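Reviewers of the previous submission asked for a worked example of the structure-prediction workflow described in the proposal, so we include one complete record here. The input consisted solely of the amino acid sequence. No template or homolog information was supplied to the procedure at any stage.
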Amino acid sequence: MAQTHAGDNVHFWAATDVGRVRDHNEDNFLVDKGLNLFVVADGMGGHAAGEVASSIAVNQMRDVVRQNKDLLDSYKEGSQIASTRDVLSLLEHAVQKACAEIHELAEKETEKRGMGTTLSGLLIIGNKGFIAHVGDSRIYLLRGGRVVQLTEDHSLVNELIKRGKLAASEAENSPYKNAVTRAVGVYESVEADTMDFDVLPGDLFLLASDGLTGYLKNEEIEPAVEGVDDLKEIPAAFIDMANERGGKDNITAIVVRLVDAEGKASELNKEIELKIETIRRMPIFKFLTYNELVMIMNITTVKDVGPNEKIISEGDEGEDLFIVLKGNVKVHKGETEIVALRDGDHFGEMALIDKAPRSASVTAITGSKLLQIGRTNFFEIIRKKPRLATKLLWSFLQVISDRLRTTNQELSGRADTIVDLTEELFEIEVNVDDD
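From that input alone, the workflow returned the following structure tokens.
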């Protein structure tokens, strides 16, 4: 089964295959060209219950989103009554409704007890992408020659790798490689990962069940799609690859491409990469993965300031971190300049963790472009992403430790200077007394 569509410059093709070992297909997929909604689900459970679970999941996802199309339209039009958070909440609600329905059916029909499914959905609205994800199916993004896995596997193997109990190279032969730690329908509710991000002309997405991803390396994705104009060739090629390498599970792939009709992809890619690389250079973000950097970038706003424009005033309560994308600014107390900052430098990061008054003022020297991160949005991310929060906490501790060490060294140097001056004064006094 496959479909293609060219509306809104979004093209796609989808295909599924039973594989070489299974006798029936428990995968399901959905493409809704009116909503630009794409979903892959990989069911599990005896007596074909997995197929039932995955079918319920994809259909509930579509039904809930379709019933709220007015909210999506409002968001696309830029209306203030629909926010990014509203769209993410809608996807979360769709996952929970699917979960409850699958679980309720399993409770009624004993042969279906324990059935469940993975669920990975991508919704595109204008220049924004939204993801809802549970399980170990995956969504990849290919942009500017870089392949990024946007979803994190909810699997026992991935947990063991994160905890240092298993090497990534050993995952393929692990006896736990098919065990998922989260699934839709096994319990009455489930924790879903959601995220939003900017989409660009030229972006290509691959949604796939683990019947494909279990055989696929990230570095093989770009060569498989590069230069292929007919999208229907790509899922078929991936399915053939998985079957040639064993085909031990059902295989499903959806490819989605945002057509670069105006030839702007290269310019926009450079702009996005500049933001991400600028954020990456900051000490508090240095341990983050590309996905996590994208999450941080998504909560930034761009602030343009003119020459001699005041950005921060000494004594004001601080709530924002600023990163200089382009331009020059100065940190000063009154008329005394403390330091000049330029591209890639940052100021105000402690405002992300406390409300202490600003210790100095900051003023633009030239016209400048700044990335601004607010404390409220920052805390919202770390509340939802415990692993990200741990990395940021560790980075903050290192930054504070480095500052304390520098301060101690400076104080130690000043103390040595005072001792030297005291000794010199003592020697002078003794010499005067002797005279």
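The first strand starts at residue 10 and ends at 17. We consider this example representative of the routine output the project will generate in years two and three.
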